[in-house]
Amino acid sequence: MKAAVLGATGLVGRTFVKLLSGHPWFKVSKLVASEKSAGKEYGEIVEDSPKEFRKNVIISLEEFLKDPDVDIVFNALPASISREVEEKLAQEIPVFTNARAHRYDEDVPILVPEVNMNHLGIIEVQKKNRGWDGFIVTNPNCSTAILTVSLAPLVEFGIKKVRVATMQAISGAGFSGLSAYAIHDNVIPFINGEEWKIENESKKILGKFNGERIENADFDISAIATRVPVIHGHTEAVFVELEKVNIEEIREAFDSFDPLRDYKLPSYEKPIVYSEVPQPRLHRDRGKGLTGTVGRLEKINGGVKYVTLGHNLVRGAAGGSVLNAELAYRLGYL
C-alpha cells in the first residue's frame, strides 16, 4: 500500500518515517511537511533519516491535498490543523493519526491494539455516519498509551480506582516545547491538558464496544502529570484499587499478557516485560520502543501499586499508530 506521512519533519513524523522504512505492507511514497520545508530533500532537513528517504523531495500539505494518490495516511500534524485535513482525506483514504482532533468523537476509536482491538468495529459505524469510503483511527496521548497497556491485564481483577503520577520526557513537548533553561535541574509538575487526556482517554480505551458505540469504563481515575529532564521515555507511578487482589496472579497476568502474539504483525513486540526497577535510560528501547516495562509491583490496601514506563515517541505515538494500521490490515479493514 502506498503511504504518506504528514508532518514528516517533526519528532513524531520522523519516528513514523524510521518505523516505516522497509515496511513490508506500507511503502512511503509521499513525505509532507510545511511550506518552509517543501521542495527540499528529506535528508537535508532530517540528517539522520533512513537512507531510502534521503533524496525524497518534501511536498507541502497544500500540494498533497490536491492529489493525495496514496492508499493510507499517517498523520503527525498539529491538532490545530488536523481535524479539517483528516476529514477531507478520510472521505476516500484511511487515516491513522497521532493528533487528538478526533479522539473524542463518538464514532472514532482511540486504539491500543493489545487493549481494545475490537473497537476497530466502530469503523463501519463511522463510515455509515459520515458517508466516507475511508475512516479515521486515532492513537492516544503518549502517557495514556503507556498506562492503558499496563492496566489491561488488571481488568480481570476488577478495576475500581486508578491514581497515576507521570514523569514525562521532554521529547513529549516537541522540538520547541521547553527551553533548556526551564527543564535543566528541574521538575515541572504541570503539563497543560495532559491530566484530562489521561483521565478521559483511558476510560474510552478500556470501555466496551456494543456494536453501535463505545461505552466508557466506569472506574474512577485521577492523574498528576509532570515533566522531567529525561530525553525519551515516560515513567508512571500507578496505584490501582481492585475488586480482588492476588499479587501472584497479578504478576502472572503481566507476564502472560500478549494479545497480538499470533497475528504475525510486522511490528509486533511483546507489550510488557517485568523488571524490578524500571528506568527510562535502560528500558525505553525494549522491543524497538513498543515494549513497556512494569516493575515495583506491591500489594497495598485494596489493590496494588507499580511503576510502568514506555517510549513516548514509539509506543506512545508513531509506533502505536503503525501497529494500529497493521492490525487493521490484518483484520481486513484495509
TrEMBL record:
| Keyword field contains Oxidoreductase | yes
Write down the top EC class of this protein.
Answer: oxidoreductase
The protein's Enzyme Commission number: 1.2.1.11
Q: Which domain of life is it from?
A: Archaea
Q: Which GO terms fall under biological process for this protein?
A: methionine biosynthetic process; threonine biosynthetic process
The answer, when asked if Oxidoreductase is one of the entry's keywords, is yes
Domain (Semialdehyde dehydrogenase NAD-binding) spans: 2-123
InterPro entries to which the protein is assigned, alphabetical:
ASADH-related (IPR051823), Asp_semi-ald_DH_pep-lack (IPR005676), NAD(P)-bd_dom_sf (IPR036291), Semialdehyde_DH_NAD-bd (IPR000534), Semialdhyde_DH_dimer_dom (IPR012280)
Keywords of the record? NADP, Oxidoreductase
Write down a Pfam family by its short name.
Answer: Semialdhyde_dh
Active site, per annotation:
C142, H234
Give the molecular function GO annotations. Answer: aspartate-semialdehyde dehydrogenase activity; NAD binding; NADP binding; protein dimerization activity
Q: PANTHER family this protein is in?
A: ASPARTATE-SEMIALDEHYDE DEHYDROGENASE
Q: Tell me what this protein is called.
A: Aspartate-semialdehyde dehydrogenase
Q: Origin organism of this chain?
A: Pyrococcus furiosus COM1
